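Got a spare moment? Tell me how you read both lines of this record:
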Amino acid sequence: MSDVFEGYEHHYCELSVNLSNKCTPTIIVDGEQREQRTAEIKAALDEADDLIRKMDLEARSLQPSVKAPLLAKVREYKTDLNKLKSQVKRITAPDISHSARDELLESREADTLTASNDQRGRLLMGTERINQSSDRIKASRRTALETEELGVSILQDLHQQRQSLLHASNTLHGVDETITKSKKVLVAMTRKLSRNKWIMGSIVGVLVLAILLVLYLKISH
């Protein structure tokens, strides 16, 4: 059920009980007090009408599976309110006699006891549903807070992992630079060794030629 509809229903039930209590023999009096009480009752009836319209609009905006039972409730509330309006109109009529008004009030009082009990039952049920909705909202908020805390913890872990990856990347970059430098050193050493081989070969060639020359000169003499 819609939480908005439950709020309207709860308010309407409270208002209906108050209206029923105002239409008792001890409340309806004559003179200025009667006029004042009549104005209060009519204002309350207008407010009840407005609440029923809001309930009707809210019910029609819901899914079909939810809409049907809520519209049935709205029709029931309309019927109750129309009965109450009729009784109030007859009781507050200026040309009605005291005896007729007393009879209507006594009849209305008996109906009020039954209606009030039913409305109080609905009011209690509405209050219970509102409390349950409030509990569900609180539970949802707790879940949302726990989810938020979990999300913050995950983000912190991800940040730490990112820092670790950046550190590892920097370390690998440093290793790569070291390998590059080592490679350059090895290439330079290889080239130097190659040059030294050519120099040694040249020296050996010169020595061999010198020895052959010396031997040739000795043999010639």
In short: The CA atoms of residues 97 and 187 lie 125 Å apart. The chain has four helices and no strands. Residues 98-220 form the longest helix (123 residues). The mean pLDDT is 78.
